[in-house]
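seq:
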Amino acid sequence: MNKQPWKIIVAAILLSTGLNSAQAADPIKIGSFLTVTGPASFLGDPELKTLQLYVESINAGGGINGRPVELIHYDTGGKAQDAVGFVKRLIKNDNVDLIVGGTTSGDTLAAIPEVEKEGIPLVSLAGAVDIVEPVKKWVFKVAHSDRMAAAKIFEDLRKRKLTKVALITGDGGFDKSGREQLLKLAPEYGITIVADESYGNKDTDITAQLTKIRATDAQAIINFGFGQTPAIVTKNIKQLGIKLPVYQSHGVASKTFIDLAGDAAEGVRLPAAALVVAEQLPDSDPQKPVLLAYKKQYEAKYGPVSTFGGHAYDGLFIAVEAVKRAGGTDKAKVRDQIEKTKGFIGASGVFNMTPEDHMGLNLDAFKMVEIHNGGWKIVE
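struct:
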């Protein structure tokens, strides 16, 4: 009798048993809504790639407490109304255990009421301070806030003894929130706002507004915005022959901005996460090994890192560590553990959250950087 077929059958049974055992562990479902297409795609694209990269890595290592991780993602295209619809779908149809996203402040702020109503942990990757102030029970964020960015810029202006500033901002949620923080903080730093111009985030020429700024006695220009338009602003400043120091927000801390602005970007300063200058950090900096490891793993697969992908790294692993400490995916327990995050060394800084602080970063998490020879240089 030929016994070979029985060997095949036994092997198939064993394989099936193994698969059933692996499938018996319900996946931990992480939902995400990011802006992977549209004007803010250079933010959302590295965020999604980071989530996919590390979910794959986590699963290759056995998952979380033996459970695989399933990432369920929707692309908002930067449309706040779509973000709300996707968040509803993640919660009610996909039955996710927690959410990491969205990319933009507008998307996140629109989705918050649904998250709070349904009681599900959300770790936002967006910048507006309004996301966590006042504190919302179920909402956290990992990106540096617009208030921090304003303070960091004003600190640098004070060091340079520059007190008269022209503002120019876009019409998006992030831009408007940043403008509000700049106006609010200016008196604390002895800064006088001598111009306050704005543009539409789909505009292709900003020379009219910049011509008005040129006619003032401004000593520096601050452009608070994200997407492609800040690069247009930067190029228009050069084209008009304006020689003032130019500051951008952390919303353009990406090689994409440098590529879009070209040689006009030379000398522009902005607050940014340490990720863009990881190699320049001293070896004593606790973030350095974390940043270099993330940079190596990401760039091996996708090319140059950006601070926005770093936010996704932080959001994912703060959530993952919370699930581990909670011993499962009970939403209230996971929420409580996110709030208890202490000493987490991430790409954006060292996080220490509290019931009163659902971000957990201080101003030291920002580095003031200058664009120099098509790259980043620490200037402090």
